[in-house]
Amino acid sequence: MRPFRIDAAIERAETLPGEVYRDPGWYERARERVFARSWQLLLEEPPGPGEARPVELLPGCLGEPLLLAREAQGPLRCLSNVCTHRGAVLVDAPCAARALRCRYHGRRFGLDGRCLSMPEFAQVEGFPGPQDHLPALPLERLGPLLWTGLAPAVSFAELTGPLRERLSFLDWSALRPDPASTRDYPLEANWALYVDNYLEGFHIPYVHPALNAALDWDAYRTELLPHGVLQVGLARLDAARGDGEPCFAPPPGHPDHGLRVAAYYYWLFPNAMLNFYPWGLSLNLVEPEGPGRLRVRYAAWVLDPSLRERGAGAGLDQVEREDQAVVRSVMRGVRGRLYQRGRYSPTREQGVHHFHRLLAGALQDEGPA
To answer: Using CA atoms, how far apart are residues 45 and 209, in angstroms rounded to an integer?
Structure first.
């Protein structure tokens, strides 16, 4: 594992070394220095009042046992699902309860995480103390999406602020989940290659013929955010004149007012991809499962079902298959010994360059390289 840097000037910079995508050592660093320090999405259905639901944070990567719990009268909480006595997992399945009892030695916890009692502990001094309560994790919302993290390096406001501001005109409360769209895609590739592919429209004319017919590739824009990237896809003028392709209508004073925006593609560091179309929101969450394995979790929330299969937001299953094919091909390539590093297109790969600088800084415990 040799140190490397990504030059701040994209015109001079070289891409990530091939070994970052294939070396188990770099993957282990990413687990601890990227994923354990980032905000992560929880796609599980939250429990109702007086219920608890176990969740696992990034299975196959962090694998942290967590618990979503809500008292009969109280807020939703995200807690450790590990007993503070000897480490047994507390809840294995969703349940209704007023308290939780560890099946190993009988320690009891409230749904707020407080340790309530423990058999045979009458002589223990200072019991229960702070260390006996279940650790609580931060829990935040962005529209219908729940987020948490073990030790996020930035605040949730820093991560999501630019997105909230840009999409302030969106009626988040009108988004409705589409369970039929929920699916997982396993892929034999490194997680960062999937992010690389997402962060540029460079490949659209070569890989996505249907999407290319809907978007004006020459007008495709990439904007760099402190902890993410926004790609703005504008509708082709001929498509707009011909069939009335659905587009957003940002209000006066908005940066995109007067533009026919077909899609906003947001990537939030390190692994969340939020795709906003006039019909609603589709989500790609990339979950690493090893140096050369990942799982893409796909979910959708709908604003207007009548627009679902029109414009840039149509045929997303086909787009996903096309992306996976090329990512799989690149993984085969970077596994080879002859590939070292590439160069960036200054006009088309600004997002990839930004991601590589953020990742290089996190992996090597420093600011952007």
So the answer is: 35
How far apart (Å, rounded) are the C-alpha atoms in residues 25 and 96?
Answer: 42
Task: Give residue 322's pLDDT band: very low, low, confident or very high (50, 70, 90).
Answer: very high
**Global confidence as pTM:** 0.94
Residue 118 amino acid letter = M
Stretch (H or E) spanning 177: strand 176-177
Pairwise CA distance, residues 150 & 146, whole Å: 14
221 pairs with which residues across the strands? 232
| Rounded Cα distance, 359 and 344, in Å | 16
Model confidence at 87, pLDDT cuts 50, 70, 90, reads: very high
Is it the case that residue 239 has pLDDT exceeding 70? no
Determine contact, residues 113/136, Cβ cutoff 8 Å.
yes
**DSSP per-residue letters across 127-161:** -S-GGGSPPEE-EEEETTEEEE-SS-SS-HHHHHH
Task: Decide if 222 contacts 10 (C-beta within 8 A).
Answer: no
- Percent of the chain surpassing pLDDT 70: 97
Distance between CA atoms of 280 and 211, rounded to whole angstroms? 17
Q: Where are the beta strands (DSSP E) in the chain?
A: 40-42, 51-57, 64-70, 76-80, 95-96, 99-101, 108-110, 115-117, 136-137, 139-142, 145-148, 176-177, 183-187, 221-225, 228-234, 261-268, 272-277, 280-290, 293-302
Taking the C-alpha atoms of residue 202 and residue 241, their distance in angstroms, rounded to an integer, is: 25
Cα(86)–Cα(108) distance, integer angstroms: 13
- Is the pLDDT at 229 greater than 50? The verdict is yes
Return the pLDDT at 366: 62
H or E element at residue 286: strand 280-290
Nearest-CA neighbor of 81 among 73, 70, 89, 69? 89
In degrees and rounded to multiples of 5, residue 210 shows phi and psi of: -70, -40
> Using an 8 Å Cβ cutoff, are 29 and 35 in contact?
no
The angle, 0 to 180 degrees and rounded to 10, between the axes of the packed helices 191-198 and 316-334 is 130
Higher per-residue confidence, 100 vs 318: 100
List strands edge to edge, sheet with 76-80: 95-96, 51-57, 64-70, 76-80, 136-137
